[in-house]
Amino acid sequence: MLRIGTVLLDRYELLEQIGSGGMAIVFRGKDRTLERYVTVKILREEFIGDEEFITRFRSEALAAARLSHPNIVRVYDVGQEGNVYFIVMEYVHGDTLKQAIKEKAPFDTKSTINVSMQIASGIAQAHKNHIIHRDIKPQNILVGTDGIIKVTDFGIARAANGATMTTSTTAMGSVHYFSPEQARGGYVDEKSDIYSLGITMFEMVTGQLPFQANTSVAVAMKQINEELPDIRQYNPKVSASLEMIIRKATRKKADERYATIEEMIQELAAAKNETNGMAQQMPSRTRASQPEIQYLSTVDNNKKQAEARRMEQARQEELSATEEMMAKQEKQGIKNIRISKDDDFEREYEEVEPVRRSRRPKLDMQNRRNPRQEEEYEQGFDKVREKKVVFAAVATALIIIAIISAIGVKAFGTKAGLFGDSSETAKVKLFVGMELKTAQELAQKDGYRVVEEKSVYSERYAQGIITAQSTEENSDIKKGMEVGVTVSLGKETTEEAMPNLKGDKEEIAVEKIKNLIGKEPKVSYEYDEDAEMETVMEQTPSQGTKITAETTISIVVSRGKETKTTIVPKVEGLTQSRAEKALKSSKLNVGDVTLTESDSVEEGIVITQTKEVGEEVPEGTEVGLVISLGKSQQNEPEENTQQPEEQTPENQAPENQTPEQPQQPIQNTKTKTYTVNPPAAGVTKAHIKIVKTDDNGESVVLDEQKSLPFSVPISGSGDGQITCYIDGVQMWSDAF
Known about the structure:
Blueprint: E1 7-8, E2 12-20, E3 24-31, E4 36-43, H1 51-65, E5 75-81, E6 84-90, E7 94-96, H2 97-104, H3 109-128, E8 131-132, E9 141-144, E10 149-151, E11 158-159, H4 180-184, H5 190-206, H6 216-225, H7 240-249, H8 261-281, H9 284-287, H10 292-335, H11 345-356, H12 371-413, E12 425-427, H13 436-446, E13 449-456, E14 466-469, E15 476-478, E16 482-488, E17 496-497, H14 506-517, E18 522-526, E19 536-540, E20 546-547, E21 554-558, E22 565-567, H15 576-585, E23 589-596, E24 606-609, E25 616-618, E26 622-628, H16 636-646, E27 669-676, E28 685-694, E29 697-707, E30 710-717, E31 721-726, E32 729-735
Parallel strand pairs: 13-16, 18-21, 23-26
Antiparallel strand pairs: 1-2, 2-3, 3-4, 4-6, 5-6, 7-9, 8-11, 9-10, 12-15, 14-16, 17-20, 19-21, 22-25, 24-26, 27-30, 28-29, 28-31, 31-32
């Protein structure tokens, strides 16, 4: 099991486990090279030795890597480190559609259509590339915090033009979303994805799975035999057009479904337009049944219009009051002029008359009032007008106060700002785990702001990532307001001195570093004859160096003495002496030698060997031999007495060399041609070394770089052996 903090290929750091499935474990990780967060999908340990699962795991990466679409999770990289197979993908901030269904279903018609169109768009891109997903279900649909829907997990995807189109028991998605042909193990094509999308849409609008039973087999049988339940018994508000689309997508017969996913998208778009059109054309009596937020929005708009009219009226009244006050001031200025009996009253009155701009009709000189009486009349008239002005000013002030109370108090008293639209609201997204800049961009699109309120050290979140927010996810917030967030400063960087790890056991060294800086070091292994197995030989950085949680620490652990291996040659059919030489040249030792009678093998020849030919064994391994004593002979003394008569002094040999006498005629030189083939596909050139062992001893026939394949004739005397090495590795050995 990989630990948090593990770095794959010196690049991808595992930060936290975010999910798991039957085939893989999913981590949130960080790409240290590109400084971005990624999803790392790692094949489970129990499948590492299973070639079929490894092939399926790689096929997921290859299938998804061929696709580039906003509604499909992107694949960045595929890799292997030791026995760890992994895929690096785009990290999506959000949750699965399955989780959204659990929390919010049943969805309304508009939301269901919007989500379905995005899923269908991603599927359409896969179908264009001749890829069938074959496992469409809410668990494989990601809902980003930005509202973008993405299809993921192409683990059992197949090419539409592939040779095998039958679903096997090892390549099956969830039975609740199976098409009938998948449940039967029949032919699977693009229409199977359409069926699974239809089942997913049913679950979105009802909050229920259409076919449920105690066993997977029972569910599969319902998929094959039973019709889709009535959608309106779960959600009476679903539109007729959406219900029709779901039913057509989930027809039992594939040819009765949509011919292509594009056709389904067109009908979803038409249903969306129909839904929007009904909302716009709905009469006032019907609008009362719309969601409360639409009703409040209409009321707020009416209030705004009424308040605007009142403000305009108040402004006009205020202007009129101002003019009247100015007229009053001018009039009071006239009153303050002292009039003597000697003054030319008529002339003075005529001079000031235009200044006063009296609104009363002008009087000719004969009919006008006496100035003294006129002044008294003006004073009385001004008092009445002054009362009106005061009343108008008070009324204006009250109107302004009312307006501020209605639409301005919250603007001044909160963070919404003077120009924020307090009547419109937005749903707060989940920002925890996002970078601050990304969160600010998403919030800005929705009409509110994200601001950093404080920053803290965090063991879990990297620097710059949001760890908490002041307003909970899905809360309603007035547009223009702010959501405060807490941003991580990363792990607290306390400096420590690097300890001496050399000579420590691996487990002890790893524990020391983990306790010191909170993460494990990178471990590599090397063979060393002098260092004890499983102990630390080298460390980076060296002892005493200052280290923090961000320091990369590496240790090299000894594997002990390297065990070299060799290939067991074939020595059966050779004389004992030749067999021993062949084993020695292969760096093997001769084990127990057993002598036994044989009717088929001549005396002195190896009948069998205890190690299988071609077996890879450690150098120095003992190989036992069974040597033939020849046929069992009852007249052996008579034959022995005759042998001296047949031999001459020149060709007579010592008795202990009798087993070699059958080989005496094969002392002449002989030639045999050998062909050296490539060790693997694609190898066209290699260093070839051929060693010959015969009666003349051991010699090197060839030792040079050669193009493959090629043939070489080899000559030798007596029994022997030819051994071929390619790039330093013994490939084969043959009796000469």
